[in-house]
Fold:
Amino acid sequence: MVIILRKKIKNKKLEKKRKVSIFRAFSSRNYRLYFSGQSISLIGTWMQKTAVPWVIYIQTHSLFMLGLSAFATQFPSFLFSLFGGVVSDRYNKYRVLLATQILSLIQALLLAILVLSKHYTAWEIMGVSVILGIINAFDVPARQSLVYDMVDNKEDLPNAIALNSSMVNLAKIAGPAFAGIVLEKLGAGLCFMLNAVSFLAVIISLLFMRFDKPITSNKSKKPIKELKEGFTYITTTPEIGFILLFITVMSLLVLPYDALLSVYAKDIFNGNASTLGYLNSFIGVGAIGGTIFLASLKDKSNLKTILLIATFIFGVGLILFSHITDFKWACVFAIMMGFGMMALSTISNTILQTTSITEMRGRVISYFAMAFFGMRPLGSLLIGWIAKYIGAPNTVLMEGIAALLVFGSFSFFMRKAILKKKQQSNLESEETILEKI
Structure:
């Protein structure tokens, strides 16, 4: 009896330790493998993202071509992401992810060969970038939805998604830094080659994974019908529709604030490229702080409330940053912006993954990718056009106000939904009592 009691106490202590651990998702072997491989691969990805615009600008000296090169990568992802979601739900998402990582390796290798040959044009670089955009459209839904299967204890899923975000933000800091050194000393070709090699890490990690339950595929329906089913599912599931609408509005009106950071660095703070780098670094610090905060949350935390608080912090940070002229204070407010931005995107992803059913998860994530990644280029065009007439500070101020309006609007609708749910619950309870009488 004493031995049994001791075991129970020990198990309770271990369970408590697991719940408060920031790295509790690492208890799943498959997730540990994924995290280690993806961490290396993402650094290579950001090296390539830094090197491509550098190569384009060095050859063309055209700001238009710079914008076009970004569009060449982003727009195909927006265009094909819904089909990527269907493929993720229709086929074995593990195999889809393995295929997209191999294709991404080949794409980086093509870029490296092209640049190292020293006989290339900017249009050829953008053509290869379009290929990457198409690959990403199928990669993101498969990768994001497969995380659910990698985590043994589903209560650890929010922690796993938060750790993913921290991994991305660390790569955003490390990748461009390494790229700068390699570009200066060894050239862009080696940047692309190192990215190609980095994909080996995630491919090897995927090959070592083992799943207790087979990740089955579903080919019983036509792809177009599955596409329609996905749209019907999100429109008839209020909780998912709520989050997708939220992230669409934020991506269009608020998140593209970073398009104006160059104006602040050069014209408002009278700085240079290093000034812009510092601003981005402090935003990155805030984002990492946000992911650590989310990773430390308890399993039963109210994510919707935290989502709204993050939106409020983001909006206030933008308003305070908008007309600041002191660079030190600007860095403080940049941390607020980074914290709020990363928290709201990570929590949105978490809610969608934990709410959606397994059969629809890939399609739901594809809509999230469309809303989050697809609206931002359009938002950047809109923000740039507005800033042309009212200036960057007033535009960022408007973005902060827009974030607070979104906060207020969605708070109202969320309270209304909660009241409606309570009323339905009370009505069901009364009906149960009457039935008993």
Notes: DSSP finds 15 helices and no strands in the chain. The CA atoms of residues 112 and 189 lie 5 Å apart. The chain has two domains: 26-209, 234-437. Residues 1-5, 13-18 have pLDDT under 50 and may be disordered.
